[in-house]
């Protein structure tokens, strides 16, 4: 059976989410399981930083907000920017002029659309870039209304950390569960539970403990490996940038302190190398194969296999930014020279000979359908995976046998040519794809290889 939009909200922009995760990395580069959360007080268990992490990425954290409408996501982001001195004076003056209350409405720092200000809700994803002496940040303030859950998916798709807000007066609600399920489905490595509006419940520790415990049980059931819970008041500034003097029972980090110290771990800098060929460059008698490393690293002298052909050769040279290099690692772009004159073209995948992905014409995946026209067994589509596009047919859709707009479900596909792919849980970049209408080029469906959609058989309870 399929999971309706009510289970995960309305994510028609899920395509953009997966594209930004690595499907169209050449066009879009914008952006271990611990013991789990404890009742009422949670602190993270840091994991080891990947060896040889790129310096440009090691101090950069991409994170997103999530949560139900009116839980205070935009206010949290505004408070964070304001108290960390990341707002220019003219911006603050403009917000003060647009505010209706006595002080500046910090939510307006991110809610910039006219409709957002009129309705008092976030509609579109607002990206903000700021830095502290310890780390650089790219944050996405996403909508909380059920109608705009799709935008939350887009914002969380590039995040290595998601802050899910809960109103301390309401506790865990249906939209909280949706966003937790989306974070689990997208396999966001780090999840922070921010219990907001603690000032409206008298800063009671028991309220925080109950909500943290309930959310922890939910996260564990969804397979989220680690949760950090922080009690805050975004409006008053408690535990956002500065520690609260009114919650001395809490001994954990503030939101900013956690963002500055959490390990930035991403599977793309670890694991077996994956190099989708984007372009073939001819220089005299020499051919170079250009692309962006989707995962891991390749070095001169590495024995590699070109897929789907299966031919094996050796890397004899690497160019990065026009200069010779000994290695190229994710997410860098570069060009490879190979020892043998092989037939390599756009869409091929160069991988270590000792760490091959699956090569098959059969693909099973969790998918989100994005088009008004239903997806049915027998439909002929184009499947785009990294830089490769192949013809495919929908073989099976368990349950009602079709997927309507916004529905989440399972799909079995048969491709016309062999495809090299990883499981989504192992690599979000080489384990994701989109289905395209061959008639008009419209994006139909976004998928995650080997994943199980919430609400379907074998899904976490």
Structural write-up:
By secondary structure, this protein is α+β, with helices and mostly antiparallel strands. Helix content is 20%, strand content 30%. It is globular, with a radius of gyration of 23 Å. The two termini are 15 Å apart. The protein is built from 10 helices and 22 strands. The strands form 4 sheets. Strands 7, 8, 9, 11, 12, 13, 15 and 16 form an 8-stranded antiparallel β-sheet that branches. Strands 2-3-1-4-5-6 form a 6-stranded mixed β-sheet, with helices on both faces. Strands 17-20-19-18-21-22 form a 6-stranded antiparallel barrel.
Q: Approximately what portion of the residues adopt beta-strand conformation?
A: 25-35%
- Helix content class: 10-25%
Low-confidence stretches: 1-58, 111-123
Q: What structural category characterises the helix and strand content?
A: alpha+beta
Major β-sheet, in short?
8 strands, antiparallel
**Number of H- or I-type helical stretches:** 10
Mean pLDDT: 79
List how many beta strands DSSP finds: 22
Q: State the end-to-end CA separation.
A: 15 Å
**What coarse outline follows from CA principal-axis ratios?**
globular
> How many whole angstroms does the radius of gyration measure?
23 Å
